[in-house]
Every structure is written in C-alpha cells, then in structure tokens.
Amino acid sequence: MTTVDAAVGKEQDGSWQTFKRGLALSPELRTGLAGTLALAVVATVGRIVVPVAIQQGIDRGITAPGGPFPGVVATVALISLGVLAITVCTSYLMNVRLFRVSETALASLRARAFRHVHDLSMLHQQSERRGTLTSRVTTDIDQISQFLQFGGLMLLISGGQVLIATVVMFTYSWKLALVVLVTFLPLIWIVRALQRRLAIAYQASREKVGVMLGTIAETVVGAAVIRAYGVQRRTEERLDGSIEDFRGAQFRALRRSVLSFSSGEITSGICLSGVVIVGVLLGVDDQITIGQLTAFLFLTTLFVQPVQMGTEILNDAQNAIAGWRRVLDVLDTEPDVADPGENGQDLRLGPVAVSFDKVHFAYPGGPEVLSEIDVTIPAQARVAVVGETGSGKTTFAKLLTRLMDPAKGQVLLSGVSLTDLRFASLRRRVVMVPQDGFLFDATVAENVRFAKPELSDAELYLAFTELGLADWVDGLPDGMNTPVGERGEALSVGERQLVALARAYVADPDLLVLDEATSAVDPATEVRLARALDAVTRGRTTVAIAHRLSTAEAADRVLVFDAGRIVQNGPHAELVSQTDSVYAKLHSSWVEQTRST
Amino acid sequence: MRDQGVVGKGLRVLRQAIREEPGPFAVGVAGAVLHSLVTIGSSFVLGAIVARIAVPAIQEGRVSAGAIALAVAAILAVSALKVSGMIARRLGAGAMQFRLQATYRRRVTRRYLRLPLSWHHKHSTGELLSNANADVEAVWFPIAPFPFAVGTLAMLVVAGVALFVTDWAMALVGLAVFPLVFALNVIYSRRMSPRVTRVQELRADVSTIAHESFDGALVVKTMGRETEETTRFAAKADELRDGLIRVGRIRGAFDPLIDSLPNIGTLAVLVVGTWRMSTGAADIETVTSVVFLFTVLAFPIRAIGWVLGELPRSVVGWERVTKVLSATGDMEYGPRETEGHGTPATLEFRDVTYTYPDGSEVLHSVNLEIPAGRTVALVGPTGSGKSTIASLATRLVDPDDGRVLLDGNDVRELGHGALADNIALVQQVPFVFDDTIGGNITLARDSVDGDDDVWTALRTAQADGFVAKLPDQLDTEVGERGHSLSGGQRQRITLARALAGAPRLLVLDDATSAVDPRVESAILGALKKSKNPASVLVVAYRRATIALADEVVYLEHGKVVATGTHLDLLDNVPGYANLVTAYEREEAERAREGAFIEAEDTEEEEVSA
C-alpha cells in the first residue's frame, strides 16, 4: 500500500510537470501551434458576440429615448450574425488542425512507447501484467488524446473566455468586476483540496479495473481448466467480486467529482448575488446604466460557465494526466539490460566461445539462484546442461543470451563482455529457443519467417527438410500456410516446438541455446531432430538444456547443475563413471525410465 | 444502410437501459428536470430582479434593504435548488451507468463460462476481453448524459409552453431553432456512425497487436526483432490516427454549428422582441427574460447532442455484446448423477470421430477402453490426436460422432459438475491462476477438504519440498499465469490440483514433460501407492511411464493403430517400436559411431580441429 500512497503523493505535485514533460517528449504537438491559437482566439470571440449584441441592442435599440427601434436592433443582430459565421469557420479550422496535430503526435508516442516496452529487460516485462503493458500503448494514450482534443481545448477556450469576459467586465464596471473575482477566489483552494481526494479515488478505480481485467482474462485463458474442474461457481464469485469492486470505486470517484462541481455552482450563486447587490447600489449611485447592469449579469454567466467547466475538465484532466504520466514513466524507465549501441562492439565473426567468470545471480528480492559459475565453453562445442528442476539451468541460459545481467561476475563471448556487445550483433549471432515456443497468430511459414523475413517459400521448405520435418509440414492441412492460431494454440504443444525450432534454425546463429526446446516432441521425432540439428549446426556452438539425457549422451560436454552451482563438467562417459555423482544418479534414473520393459 | 437506423437502434438500447435500471434513471431524470426547471426559473428570477428591483431602484435613485435581501435570497435559493438537482442528476446517471456496466460484464462473463470450449477457440483472447470491457463500456457511454438530455427535453417543453404563454412571436423563433438543433444532431450521428465503427475496429487491432507482441516479448527479444515489431505496430497505429482524424473532421465541423444555433436564436429573439415592443405587444421584462432563457438553454441542449453523438459507438458495442449474449452451443447437461464414489471409474470411447472447426479431421473412429482401476498409456507421434482424446475424455469438447462413456453412461447425459467430480485432467501446458498456491490447488472445491488434503496432494506430486520453502507456503501468491514459478513447479502444482480432488479417473496429458526423470518416477511411484485408487489415462513417451500401464493404445494420424501390452506392441507394431525405442537405438547408433571413431582415432582429431 505504501507504494500506492507514494505514487498518489507524487501525482499531486506533478500534474503540471507531467504536462510539460509530455509536451517536451512530443514536440510534434507544437506544430502550427501559433496558428491554432490564433484561430482559437477568434473562435472565442464568437462566445462574447451575443452578450455584447444584447447589451448594444437593449441600450441603443430598446431603452434608448424614443425607442424601441427595430431597425437598429436588426442591424446589430445582422452584424453579430456575420461575426458568428466567421467564428464557426475558424472553429472548424482550429478543430481540424488540433485533431491532426494531436493524433499525429500521439501515434508516434504510441510507437515509441511500444518500442520502449520491448527494450525493457525480460525481468521488467514479466513483472508487469500483459494487459497493463498493453494499456500503456492503447487506453492511456486514448485518454491523453481525449484530454487534448476536448478537455485541453475547452480549457484553452474557457481560459480565453474567462479572460475576455474579465476584460469586458472591467470596461463595464471595474467595481462589479472585482466583486466577481473576489467571490471566485476561495474556489481555487476548495477545488484544489477536492481534487487531491479525487485523484486518490481515481487511482483506486484504476487499480480495481486492473484486477477486474486480470480476472476476466483468466476466465478466458483458463477456460479449459475451469471446465475440467467444474469450478464455474468459484470463477463467477471472483468475477462478480472484481466487477462489483470496480463499480464501487467508480461510484466513489463520481461522488467526489460531483462535490467538486457543486462547489462551483454554489460559488456562482454567491457571485451573482454579489453582483446584484453591488450593481443595484452602483445604479442607484448613477455609476452604471440598466443596460450595463443587464449585460453585466450576462457577462457574469459567461464568466461562471467556463470556470465551472474548468473545474469539471480539471477532474477529467486528473485521469488523462495520470495516463500520460504512466506512458512517460515507461519511456523514462532506463532498460536495465541496455544495448551499448554506439559504444559497444560487434561480435567477432566465426564460431563463438563462451566463458562465465565467477558469475552470481539472484532474482530481485530473492535468494541467490546461481553461485560462483566459472566455466568455459570452447567455440564449436556442443554442450548439454542438465540438473534437477530449479537447479539454475534456465537462469544460466538467460544470462548466456543476455536476457538478464549477472549480479556479480561477467559473461564473455569470444573474449568480449556481453555488456559491451551491440544488440544488433548479439541477437543476430546468438539465438535462444525458450521452453514455451511462443508463436504469433499467423501461418507456420510466417512464424518461421519472423527470424528472416526475406526467406522465400522454397528456402523455408528447404529448412524444414534439413531439419527432417518435411513430412510433418506436408501432413498439415495447408502445409506451411497452415494458420497456427492465437499463441500457436491450433497446433499441439510439440508441433509448436517444432516451428519455434525451425524459426531459430533459419536465423542461422553462431551460438544456439536450446532451453528444453523439444520437451513435448515424441522421442522418434526428437532423436531425428537432434541428429539433423547436429548435422546442420556442426561448426557452431550449441548449448542445450535437456531433461532427456539422450541429449547429454550425444554432447561433447555435459554441465551438471545442482542447487545453483556447477558440480560436474566433462564428457558424458567420464561423468557417468563417477559413482554416486549427481550425474550418475540422474543418468541411472533416466536409463531406468527409458529401458524398463 | 446500417447507419440509417443507428438512431432508432440506439434509442432501443436506451429503452433497455431504462427497463433495467428504472430507479437510478428516475432519480437522475428527477434531478435533471429539477435542474432544468430551476434553470428556466432562474432566467425569470433574473429578469424580475432587473425589471422590478434594479430598474425602479436605479430610476428612483434609491433602494430598500428588503428588496435587495429578497433578490439575494431568490438567487441563492435558485442556486441551492440547482445544486441539488444537479447532484441527483449526476449520481443517478452515474449509478445507472456503472450498474449497467457491471450487470452486462457479469452477463458476458457468465456466457464465457457457459459457452463450450469450441466457441472459445473461435474467438481471440483480445476479442473476448474487449467484449467484456471496452464494448460494454461503449454501450453505456450515452447513459452519463442521458438523464440530462431527458431533463433538457422536459425543459424544452416547459420553455416552449412558457414562451407561448409569454409571447407567441418569440415562441415561434424557439419552435424554429430547437427542432433544427435536434435535426442537426441526428445528421451528425449518421455521418459519424461508419467512421466511429471503423475507429473502434482499428483500436481493437492496435490492442491485439500490442498484446500479442508483448505476450511474445521473449521471442521478439531473443530474435532481435524489436524494430520490425515496432514497424508492424506503428503501421496500425497510423491507420488508427487517420481514422481518428476523419472522425475529428466531422466533429470539428458539427460542433461549432450546433453550438451557434441557440446563439442565432437569441439574436432572432432580440429582433422579434424589439418589433413586438414597438407594437406594444411586449415589455422589456418579457424580452429580457426570453433572451436570457435562450442563453441558458444553449448549454443543456448540447446534452441531447452528446447522447445522440455517442449512439453510433453504443450501437456497435451493443451488437458486439449481444453477439456473445445470444451465442448458442452451450454444453447440454443431462440429469444423471454418477455412482461408485471412492472406486475407480471405467471410461470408454466408442467410434469417436472429431473434426476441428476448420474441417480437418483429428480423430477417426477411435475405440478404446480404460477398465476400472487400470492404467492405460496413450502413445503416438507428435500431432497424432492424443491431446484431443484427453479433451474428449474430460468433455472439454464433444465428439462429432460416436460416444464417450463413463461407467457405461454417455458423458453428455451426466449432470453439470458430475464429470469434474469424477475425472481430473492435467494438461500439457500447466495453467495457474493469479492466486495463492493453496487457492490454485483447492479451487474452492467442496471435495478438497482443508490444508491436509492439499499437503497430501503436494507430497504425491513431489511439490511439498519447494512449497514448504516458500516464504508464505500455501499462501504464497504465484502471480499472473504463475510467473514466479518455474515450468516444472507449475506442472507439479497442477498435478497436485488434480490429485487433491481424489478423482476416480486421472487423465495426464504429457503432464510431466517439464519434470526431471527422477522427480517423474517418484511421482509415478507415489501415484501407484495412493490410497485413493484411480483409473489412469496417461499420454506418455517415456518407457518408465508406459511400463506402469496395464495396456497401451497406439495412435497414428488420429486412428488407433494397435491396442495391447507394451511388449506385445513392441514386437508387432513397427511404428510403436520405432517411437519408444528411439533413445535406445540412438544410443546404440552412437556407440557404433563411437567405436568407429575410436578405431580411427587420428582422423577424429583432425575433424575436430
């Protein structure tokens, strides 16, 4: 809870700063700003035309001695009509410019935020819900656009209107004008205080909506489990709870915003009373005419309306600014596993050697999962990594591919520290196939092409053939053009792994890291695949995390992990002969499982 | 053609809203009417103050404190009434809007829970999420200004009557202007409708790309495709931008037009009023009041525009939401209950055929039986239909042809929940809820009785060790999709979940693939010794797992090729033998190569150099 409070606290003093930061990060917003503002000024004049016409009409046409003069009033009305027509046109032009500029700027902000999310480290990405990250580039930005186009514009026009009304009020009677201003002063403090509370309510509402969306997502993604276990009722309760919580939070926020708006209405009542009292007294004292007093009462409404609207817009602004801040916060988050870019160097051409130099690693706030990893993998070696679940194998792979940086020590590829390697070079030469072969909602071919878009169909098919998977591809309903479904779910888990592997293979890396990449594939296919891979990756370095020890038997060297340390390191034959060793035990268990008849 | 009826359709949605939430609607409208009446009244109050207090005072050069006090009291009373009307209007509208949102979210998610898995497979996660969230929100957007608009309509009627009572000539101006405002708003809605629909679609597309790309962030990162992904996303974002600019063009044109109409009306009233005064038909008080009335009406009349303006979006949302609500194909459940609690179940497939929605046949006339208390292993190459059999056994899907029988009863005749009480499925890809470890295992099922059952299940699944080491043990939160756990840990949690319910039939769909061999053999051993004997259908590749089975069903391309004991199949079915002895043959092969290489020792050194 403390972090939430801190965040709210930060929001309080930061609204204006956020706005400025936002403008600085989207310089496109300033395109043609002067022209738009000029148009806005003219548009605002349109709002003042009618009261002035009324005053002129009453004073010159109606209450003038010998009146009423319909002709005079008609002339005044016609002139006003002309001005109105002009302001309608300028409003249109201003709106169009505003929409174009703001949408253009925000589309580019969307793309930048999107890119930045991908630049964040894997750990950082995983600490956020997928839905939360998505809203950074969707709803949060929609809120900014709503605010800029409606709230922001209204705020601008309202400000202009207040300014013009104030100036006109002062020309009619500075005394009455002062009355208006003085009665509105306390509103500033009241609104500020109320908005602080409102910001907290909005924050609560945002958190609730996040929880609700998470619960709905689970209902959709976990549909099979919910059915298999007949737990619809429990799911309903969780859904209803989160939906109701969000509704409650929304309503609480509304109550606070109504309070804030009401204070504006009451203030305007007080203001109008003040104007009547002082106005009548001034009139009695012959300082103003009836026409002027009437016009002033209109002017007061012209002053009150935008002020009220302003308080309302400021309420919405709280939301938009909060959205903007969240987007900016993403952009401001320095990727903790950063691309050295210009300062970095490229990986030397040719086979890649790996060395871990006294590497330690712990997840944030967790215990050490890798300790004192000190190992060298020569170029072109085929290494198998084995160990029990949770012994640190996957962490090892992630450090090797620089998805994470070690807490202590360093990882070197061909003698160069990973942190000094440019991503462009690193990602081209070093490819990892993760445990769950994520596929995009496209065809098999498109998924493989993800690694190398320029590949022709013939080249793709050749890749499958080289991996011994041509039969499998041919057996698919539509061959390589078979759609794989969302996350690849139209394929079986094993088939997804085949596609993911093909994708990594066509990337043509010099160091290939396989993290249990064929765990769901049938043994015959796996063996065939292993053989094929062996042949096509000869001359490159491969590191395969394996739970099937057949991989280890075939490797040049086996690294055995136990509780975050490498306890054995050597060829299969040597390690298996070390009686009572971790590897010997793993292997005998494996043999027992694969040979028993 | 679709935008033709958008206003009519939208009004029907609004009528539905009133039917569902009459209470808050009544409060909101009452508040709006009060607010409107007071707003109209305020113009007369102000007119009266000017004419009866200000004018005489200024003309006579003196004023009484009583008159001023009266004026102030009147203004403040008007303010107080306005505020109470406004509070009622807003809270009523808000309560109505939020309640409707909640109601429809509940209804939509209820459908998600009821509709069959095959329906789910036809819709993307993103689509279903936006149905329950953004679409429901869009449907009820017009509700926020709705009571205000209804109040404004009431106000227009009252204002019209008041106008006619005051002066018919000025009333005619109002009669011309207000319908014009309404007509302009209707045209506006119609022009907007197709554009808004397009923008909604594009928004969904942008969201889908972002969600998918972030979902696959690891692949994007490991392949270094960030730039290409950004290009893909930016292209859609640019389309959305263009769509929004097109919307803005219409909005930008209509907004000032609609705004200016009441102003034009005010000017007309001024002219007409002066003419009426010149003929002696009206006095200054009447003219001032009517002019002021037009000024105060200018703003609320926009509320009607807001409602009409939101209708296209609302109608699109409504159509999407009703598509879910009216989707059919619910799994029908029968009346039968199961018997034989505490004893293992029998499962039988009779001539079962299953075809994917896209028309490709996955299973063809499959026959198999799992006798009570026996363990049957399902073996077959990747993609041969094993997981589909597991889904059919647990009735996640129904066969196109043939029957699945539990203890001799067609599973389609069993009551809701009966199957889940008897059969537990452990899927290949473990799914973990964003809940505690304990919550994930019990799933609030009646059949799981307290922490003892949970720990027993964890022990059997070989998961007690790591859970005991967690800071909060069973109360540890696992995060979204269980991201704080490793793959093997997730698998063992889902295994424990299945065991905790003491099922009569356990279906393991390659459920130990991420578990190390030693752990797996320990789990299998514990399963055999369990005090709750269950029949087991196990999808497996490992020979140790197969060895535990009493019978093996061998599958190829969706057909049962052979059924029998492991040894039997090993001898007689080449495809089966090829599959299960792959590792052994591989090792033998390697040994031969090794011998060969050793023999040619020197050559080998040259090769590696």
Could you explain the architecture of this structure?
The complex is a heterodimer of chains A (597) and B (609). Chain A is α/β, with parallel strands linked by helices and 597 residues long. Chain A has 2 domains: 331 residues, ABC transporter type 1, transmembrane domain (ABC transporter transmembrane region fold, Up-down Bundle), CATH 1.20.1560; 242 residues, Rossmann fold (3-Layer(aba) Sandwich). Chain A is 66% helix and 10% strand. Chain A is built from 20 helices and 10 strands. Chain A has a 6-stranded mixed β-sheet with strand order 6-7-8-3-9-10, sandwiched between helices. In chain A, strand 1 and strand 2 form a beta hairpin. In chain A, helix 1 crosses helix 7 and helix 2 runs antiparallel to helix 3. Chain A is elongated and about 120 Å long. The two termini of chain A are 58 Å apart. The N terminus of chain A is likely disordered. Chain B is an alpha/beta fold and 609 residues long. Chain B folds into 2 domains: 324 residues, ABC transporter type 1, transmembrane domain (ABC transporter transmembrane region fold); 226 residues, P-loop containing nucleotide triphosphate hydrolases (Rossmann fold), CATH 3.40.50. Chain B has a 6-stranded mixed β-sheet with strand order 6-7-8-3-9-10, sandwiched between helices. In chain B, helix 3 runs antiparallel to helix 5. Chain B is elongated and about 125 Å long. Chains A and B meet through helix 2, helix 3, helix 4, helix 5 and helix 6 of A and helix 2, helix 3, helix 4, helix 5 and helix 7 of B. Chain A: GO terms for molecular function: ABC-type oligopeptide transporter activity; ATP binding; ATP hydrolysis activity. Chain A: One of its GO terms (cellular component) is plasma membrane.
